[in-house]
Design goal:
Layout: H1 3-8, H2 18-25, H3 33-45, H4 49-69, E1 75-79, H5 89-96, E2 101-106, H6 109-118, E3 126-131, H7 137-141, H8 144-149, E4 157-161, H9 173-182, E5 189-195, H10 202-213, H11 224-229, E6 235-236, E7 242-243, E8 263-269
Parallel strand pairs: 1-2, 1-4, 2-3, 4-5
Antiparallel strand pairs: 5-8, 6-8, 7-8
Amino acid sequence: MDDRVAGAAGIDASVAHPARRYNYWLGGKDNFAADRASGDELQRLFPKVRLGALANRALLRRATQFLAAEAGIRQFLDIGTGLPTADNTHEVAQRVTPESRVVYVDNDPLVMVHARALLTSTPAGRTAYIQADLNDPQSILDDPQLRGTLDMTQPVGLMLIAVLHFIHGKGAAKPIVRTLLDALPPGSHLVATHATSDFGTPEQQALYEQLVRDGKSDVWTRPFDEFADLFEGLELVEPGVVPASEWRPDEGDTVPVRSDINLWTAVGRKP
């Protein structure tokens, strides 16, 4: 993407952004040199990181399909949506139920530009986009577009896909998740994926911790126990907390070793 386009949209193309780096790993074109350099450096140090990105995207599709087809969810709040690509949340949900409604949230201006242009709904359903930061969940809940698109008295699918690991600090993610869940009615579901170092060698874990300290990675990994605690009070959907590639894989899928994915996943229902 041309840096001049970025400047016109108020985007600092010199600073890597997670949504654009993710787009690069998925083979997209909506990224800048800083995003590619950041992605290449992480992939040099952790060669399987792109496999994790692909597994994460596939999980989004499978989990959305489950919520729409089996759990009866007809409206979704997708926070940290990233740049549009194949099988966005509303596309998967509306293939099952055309009346599904989706509100997308991200903090990257480039995502906003693309979302408004590309995330178009079926005539029976509806999509909306909010530019906001997950660090301030109440501002998302108070946004008029959210209230104008979703019926907050009916179950909602809360999608936190590969976004909570940008909330740094031990225990820092749970209050944000609780604020969001407390605003949703019974029958709502939480879908989350989260980067982890649980499957790496001690040397890899030490290397990654150093990258975070040096400001060379913006991903704060969490172990199994801390990720599972995000689902406190929810009814876990089988198979529970597992790596992304192991959550209800499609028939015929090859399930990679856990150290190739490094993403915890779970789906939970609010009773």
